[in-house]
Amino acid sequence: MNNQIPIVSLSFFTYSIRDQFWALKQMQQSKTIRYKLHGTSFAKLLGTGGGKFGFSIKPDFSTYALLCVWKNAAEAKTLESHHIFTQLKGKSHTSETYYMACTQSHGAWDGVNPLVPAVEYQSGPMFTLTRASLSAAKLLAFWTHVPATTRALEKSNGLLFSKGVGELPIIEQATFSHWENSESMLNFAYKSEHTQVLIKAKKQNWFKEELFARFIPVNLEDW
To answer: What pTM does this model have?
Structure first.
């Protein structure tokens, strides 16, 4: 494989009650964490939502996520040796990291799109990341329609995992999802209750900024 293709890593860490306040305090680093992770072009420390499917207005204080965009596979392989990662993992009860390559991306996060499409999807599992920064005037409209999207996710065939993530509760929201294949994801996106919510969001300008990206899984040992 081409070692110049950017690699995206998303790590989830869960914490016992005694370490949850420590984990929450680490969120202060979210805006500057990229500069502490050599080899990344973009990085965020994220909180998570308490819902089992997608967005949730209730925070999950037991789980946090570290999103990194690495310049290439060689840099991505250094993730677990970084002090920040070892600290987060060392205090966690469980942890899991997904390594991915981007197949499609549009939109922006903090004014830029950090996710560059570099590979083509052929078949098999797919990951998606949907992120939005909500307009203050549209918060009620958004959260009123969240249950419909949640129901659609819960009913989706082929959904393997989904977790809401974000920098700030209520106004900065994202969902990471793992699908059996592209068809499963497309059925949710365009053939479920989610479709009408998406149309309404576009028409009513709910979002100040949004980003949508698709990925394929990567085994770093093959790169």
So the answer is: 0.88
